[in-house]
Amino acid sequence: MNTPRIRRLRPLPLAMSMLLAACASAPSPKPQAPQVQAPVPEPVRDIATPVPGPAMPGENTANMWDQLRDSFAMADCDADPGIALWARRYTQNPQRFESQLAAAAPRLAYVQQIAARHHVAGEFALLPWVESQYRPIFSGKGMPAGMWQIMPTTANAMGIRVDKDFDGRLDVPAATDAIMALLGRYHDDLGDWRLVDYAFNAGEFGVKRMVDQHGTPPAEPVIPRMPVKPVTREHLVKLLAIACVIRDPGRFNVSLPELPSEQRLVTVSVGNAMPIAHAADHAGMSPDEMKNLNAAFRNGMVDPHASPYLLLPSNRVQQFRSALLAESSGGTQDMAGTATLPPLGAALGAADGDTPGRTHTVKSGESLWSIARRYSIGIKQLQQWNHLQGAGVKPGQVLKVSAPG
Description:
The protein is mainly α. It has helices spanning 64-70, 81-90, 94-117, 127-131, 152-157, 172-190, 193-202, 204-214, 230-247, 276-283, 287-293, 317-327, 344-348, 368-375, 379-385, and strands spanning 265-269, 274-275, 301-302, 309-313, 332-333, 339-340, 359-361, 398-400. The chain folds into 2 domains: 14-252, Lysozyme (Orthogonal Bundle), CATH 1.10.530; 351-405, Roll (Membrane-bound Lytic Murein Transglycosylase D, Chain A), CATH 3.10.350. The chain has 15 helices and 8 strands. Helix 3 crosses helix 6 (172-190), helix 7 crosses helix 8 and helix 7 crosses helix 9 (230-247).
């Protein structure tokens, strides 16, 4: 993989300034995030397919760590004493570190691919290690949640649903895509990946104001001497430290785990609600394994109106798809006794936005973003087809979700 290309500067709406201040790992009060239009993740395919990236199921993935290293864009281990110090802290118990990294590897590889899609520096694929070690962390009211540790106000501004039944902050594909899009926009505006991390932790508006007052920091020292809180400075050190371990694991007496292609995560479309335990049985997984990968569903039910896909290891996809097709009420038997199945899209709930004249009636709690995700189309398409000027929709409103026939 090539090192992420240099992003060209383009205007950034002021409304984005404070968006991810609430993602800071410090327990200090978080600023209110403004309302902005959320980015739409790549369409979810009706045939289970991994996120486009450096490796696909069936390919040799032993070099995933080389690919991650090649995408790094910031300083190495010896650029600041604090980087090596934190790298040693992470790896002071090598066996435990290796176990933790092996558990995180499937999610890390998924995040890495989305970072590459958004041309974000590879170090940021390691941000969830600093925030949560890639764990789907639940939280109490008003607290950050998910592996990105997103605050409720930030989720609301991004159009991510958070309620008693569904917490989109724990939806790995959607939350990761939204975060990476925002990190890319931060870099467009700030032009320095170090400042992007400061903005992620402390809020872009405050960092941009510091740049306006003090200028862009020089390349050295690597940890910019800007009037930020110590926890914000340490956040960057921690990020560069885990990248340091990935750069040179032998220096810290650890080995990086291989990720077999069958363990890579992919999204699979679902069209009907079902209990998590039922979905797990279809995939040949335990309910706990299914819940861990799809923690956004909080009430034990898979709800395709909230998220039209499940995240599965690639080696569980075919069994899951076959089970869905087998229980589809439209299946019949042909003369040879082979199942003649209904169209794949009907069985798996694939987006049917290509059907001329199809409409959707907005339900309470839905947003333009969630509707676009459900039908695997873009927000701009929805706006164009329905002559909408903004991103707001109302319950009962009828929207065209396919090109006019």
